[in-house]
Known about the structure:
40% of the residues lie in helices and 12% in strands. By secondary structure, it is an alpha/beta fold. A 7-stranded mixed sheet has the order 2-8-7-6-5-3-4, sandwiched between helices.
Amino acid sequence: MTSHVKRIASLRSKRVPDFRLVFCCGFGYNFHTRGGLKNPMNTISISRRKFAHLLAAGAAAAVARPAISFARQPEHATGTAGIVRLSANENPYGPSLKAHQAMQNSFDVCCRYPDEANNVLIQGLAKLNGVSPDQIVLGDGSSEILKLGAETFTGPTQGKLIAADPTFEAILEYAKANGADVVKVPLTSSFAHDLPKMSAAAKNGLIYICNPNNPTASITPKNDLREFIANTPRETMIIVDEAYFHYADSPDYETMIPLVKDHPNLIVARTFSKIYGMAGLRCGYCVAQPETIKRMHPFQMWDSVNIMALAAATASLDDVDQVPNGQRLNSEAKTFVTGELDKMGYKTIRSQANFIMFDCKRPVVPLIQALKQRNVHVGRLFPALPNYMRVTIGKKSEMEAFLSAFRQVAA
Ligand SMILES: Cc1ncc(COP(=O)(O)O)c(C=O)c1O
């Protein structure tokens, strides 16, 4: 444990009783509240009702202020005019308009720490996922959840990280930085996780399953995954990363959240960066058993999710159109681009995400560079698949721009 972590752990242990008194009633774990450290006489303890009131006051103030138009989607959500950005699996349509409004309403509470907003979102997520609030941890993006997983469950004493190859690499880097060995297990020929080989390589430590997988957009079938979770010894932790959950429509795909109740070694990570269009705001979470969450908390930064992201995420959950609209638009643009690539003779791995990966039948790196010269940015090289290109599904116009540039560079 670093001295920094020790210091935080010791501070936290001092403030826990007071925290319970001030905030715990009815809410999940929020070890990061500041209420517990303050002299009760000075505590600015805002109840949930008060927080809602402050948001409403913000709404009233917004009426008086010159209006900022949120009804208009930005011309190009990248912020870099002229560049077609299909490199980071972002959602080009952005957050829900309800999220825009909630952020505007939050301007007046930006001077407050986000404890109450944190609790409101946890309540919403608990309801959405049919779990109790103490089964949820919020993160500064799901990246923070992955980092917490690596820091808590991998390292010289805790054990190795086992991950697929290729997969989303962030957790591999966090585990290495934590002094852990990292074992990469190639995907199967159908681009699923090779669960028997991953099991065989694991002993304590952590197994990372990215489903749907980034960069291949492929899934690991639900029955295989269920069986794997049931047979993994309790001492070995499993993170199932469901960042792209909302885009998967195969009957062979299913969330693993319902299995958490029976498996203390299972953690399921989700994000607001994809279907909710909030990549720049940073908000993610995980679902696990309360005891597992207690083990992760000492490694978490206090107040890591900002009040704007919390307000936007909470409002997004109330927008019944955000998810189906995002799914429909993604599916239409994906069908279009994969159809065009198919006509050109390029085979795409069946995509269950908001990006595709296809075999470009030659080394991908020169093609990536040539596309960049034409202002079209696509995914980086994934060394395990050197002839495959990963392309984010943008708006139809962006996919047309990609196809036009790809036709030129691949000619
Ligand atoms: C599979 C996967 N997990 C996690 C993340 C991190 O997402 P965020 O930190 O924005 O929630 C990404 C980002 O692209 C991803 O592809």
